[in-house]
């Protein structure tokens, strides 16, 4: 009985390195990104080297921004006595939850040198102070 207790307490330690393997793998295969904001808009920048604009799909709703696509890149070098070929293929998907004041439907995207920048306008609040109500004398 003591042996089974010892082996069951040992198992979690052996299992630990593999516990979050799926999550770590998906993070490693996801493109690097950063998000920022100012008074006018939210900005999401995603590094997509080697990915063509035609291979990227963007979808925005009022509360989600999804970026997906497929990378297919190959490189071949030959020399007099050597040969080298390298290929990278795979699909990716990133989804970002948008804040309540984001207008996802009005998003714009631009790509330059393998970097995709998405701008999501912020809904303007007409008067953050509210509306002044005058007090009238009682009748």
Mind explaining what this structure looks like?
The chain has about 140 residues and is an alpha+beta fold. It has a domain at about 30-120: Immunoglobulin-like, CATH 2.60.40.790. Helices cover about 15% and strands about 40% of the residues. It contains two helices and seven strands. A hairpin with a 3-residue loop joins β3 (about 55-60) and β4 (about 65-80).
Short description:
This protein is an alpha+beta fold. 17% of the residues lie in helices and 42% in strands. Strands 1-2-7-6 form a four-stranded antiparallel β-sheet, with no helix packed on it. A three-stranded antiparallel β-sheet has the order 3-4-5, with no helix packed on it.
Task: Assign the structural class, choosing from mainly alpha, mainly beta, alpha/beta, alpha+beta, or little secondary structure.
Answer: alpha+beta
Tell me which CATH architecture of the domain at 32-121 applies here.
Sandwich
Biggest sheet statistics:
4 strands, antiparallel
Helix content class: 10-25%
* Spatial strand arrangement across the major sheet: 1-2-7-6
Low-pLDDT stretches: none
Number of E-type strands: 7
Number of helices: 2
* Oligomer class: single chain
The Rg value, from CA coordinates, equals 26 Å
What percentage of amino acids are in beta strands?
A: 35-45%
CATH T-level topology of the domain at 32-121: Immunoglobulin-like
Report the CATH C-level class of the domain at 32-121: Mainly Beta
């Amino acid at each position: 009985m003591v042996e089974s207790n010892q082996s069951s307490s040992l198992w979690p330690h052996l299992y630990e390195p593999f516990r979050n393997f799926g999550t770590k793998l998906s993070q490693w295969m996801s493109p690097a990104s950063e998000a920022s904001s100012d008074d006018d808009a939210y900005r999401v920048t995603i590094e997509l080297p080697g990915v063509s604009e035609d291979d990227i799909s963007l979808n925005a709703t009022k509360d989600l921004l999804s970026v997906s696509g497929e990378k297919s890149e190959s490189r071949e070098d030959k020399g007099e006595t050597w040969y080298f070929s390298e290929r990278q293929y795979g699909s990716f998907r990133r989804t970002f939850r948008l804040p309540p004041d984001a207008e996802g439907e009005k998003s714009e995207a631009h790509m330059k040198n393998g970097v995709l920048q998405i701008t999501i306008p912020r809904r303007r609040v007409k008067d953050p102070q509210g509306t002044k109500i005058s007090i009238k004398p009682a009748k």
